Amino acid sequence: MRAWFLACFLALVTLQAAVLAARLSARSLLPEKRIAIRESLPDLYEASVVELQVLHAYFARIEEVNLQGPILRAVIETNPSALAQAAALDAERLETGPRSLLHGIPVLVKDNMLRLPPRICRMNTTAGSYSLLGSVVPAEAVRPFPRQPGSGWSGRGGQCTNAYFPHADPVLWFVCGLCVAASIGLAAVTLGTETDGSITCPANQNNLAGIKPSVGLTSRAGVIPISEHQDTVGPLTRSMADAAIAGPERQLHARSAVPRPDYTLALDRNAFAGKRIGVPRAVFLNDSITGNDPYVNEVFEAALEVMKALGATVVDPADLPSAEAIATSNNESTVLDTDFKIQLNAWYEGLLSNPSGVRSLAELIAFDNANPTLEEPARYTDQSELIASEATTGFNSTYYAALAYDYEMGRTNGIDAALEMYDLDALVLPAPGFTTVPAAIAGYPIVTVPLGFYPDNITIGLAGPETVYPAPGVPIGLSFLGTAWSEFDLVSYAYAYEQHTHTRLARKAYAEAIPTTQLWDVIYGA
């Protein structure tokens, strides 16, 4: 599942007339003045939310690297109404002012999220599967804003690749295009979903900041489901500041009882002062269990020294009592397989129409087998996860026991136990490995920022039929974990670390993967 889209409800502020006027005026500028203006414009590779001006540039940048050049396959579909919506948003801004800091900012969203109703925005929501291409969802499921095998692969999107090394794996799980697009400035903000790792892992391998919120903090309305117990929506951006801006938007929240702080207030460079940060070493820093290259732990140890220098007390070790159980348990699969079948069947059944005719998980499996060139090309024929889910028999005693044990391992005998035992404010781990599992089964948050990059002499490994990992220059992330609703504090620690290290800026994507189109090119036509 790996398709991403330009969000209909957040298009960039630009008017065709204004662009034309700017181009005409540029012709009369002296060469030195043109150079000064060009140099004053932000580089879209790093440009933040508050610096952006023109939508055309993003379309041009996508065109450069998506299906041409390095063929990153990061974006499947763009909004055909984006320019018209941008003009409308620009007019609204002039008349009544901006709705928020995100007013008119372009957003890429994962292909399991609905956009605006078809009368406003004719875009698909397919989770990367041709079985949902052209499907129509009831209007009441739409709000403003299926699991596929393989590594960064989907039927509709093909194989996405990392922008930091040719053919490198963009993520170890089943999402990627969103994070690749964010990593090289194909959009200002991206929105993803995480069940277990799908925000944290893309942030890890693509040099990004990501917020995986507590389950229930952000709305799942209009999101193709895997599990109501673990699914959550959150931002992936190039900085914690942009992630904080994207995080508290009103339309993302699920219910009024959930705390809704302004996460921009958490952007504190001194956040570590007086805080106790724990390191759950058992299992999670064991290379033989996580499968991590030893280099991951090297850069992690250096990060701990940074936190100490910034005023934190690093409690090491601060192990989860349930660490061994988490590493060996299969309860999560029991819960996810059962939830996925029930909730995906409900999604299919609720469609007003579906050209493929698929109306259930069983029919999806049959559709994939009947359309091998679309859904099961060479090297991507495994449907084992879908078949395992179809074999489940509903909400029975086995399911409820597995769910209860997940909560025990992740919460009461896991993250919460470690926080209480060691009097901690948060936990910290390198993002690769099993880092996501305790928070996934608990429904708790993770905030991730860049930690480092694999060295040029790293041994290149195979990650999938068409991708490699690790590889030289591929990023590594740092994750902060906490109890339910602790996003504000986790954002503050991640921001403080980011601002004191500026790790993201230490290395760029490989040259062919960096788009060359900049704001000057589209504003002034040259």
What is the structure about, briefly put?
The chain is of the alpha+beta class. The protein has 18 helices and twelve strands.
Name its key features.
single chain, ten-stranded mixed beta sheet, Amidase signature (AS) enzymes, 526 residues, 35% helix, 18 helices, alpha+beta, 10% strand
Give the helices and strands, then pairings.
Layout: E1 4-6, H1 16-26, H2 31-40, H3 56-65, H4 82-96, E2 107-110, E3 153-154, E4 158-159, H5 177-183, E5 189-194, H6 200-205, E6 209-212, E7 232-237, H7 240-246, E8 276-278, H8 287-290, H9 294-309, E9 313-315, H10 323-328, H11 331-350, H12 361-370, H13 372-375, H14 384-390, H15 397-421, E10 426-430, H16 436-442, E11 446-453, E12 475-481, H17 487-501, H18 519-523
Parallel strand pairs: 2-5, 8-9, 8-10
Antiparallel strand pairs: 1-2, 3-4, 5-7, 6-7, 6-11, 10-12, 11-12
Helix pairs in contact: 11-14, 11-15, 15-16
Verbal overview:
With 526 residues, the chain is of the alpha+beta class. It has one domain: Amidase signature (AS) domain (Amidase signature (AS) enzymes), CATH 3.90.1300.10. It has 18 helices and twelve strands. The strands form two sheets. The protein has a ten-stranded mixed β-sheet with strand order 1-2-5-7-6-11-12-10-8-9, with helices on both faces. Strands 3-4 form a two-stranded antiparallel ribbon. Strand 3 (153-154) and strand 4 (158-159) form a beta hairpin. Helix 11 (331-350) packs across helix 14 (384-390) and helix 11 (331-350) crosses helix 15.
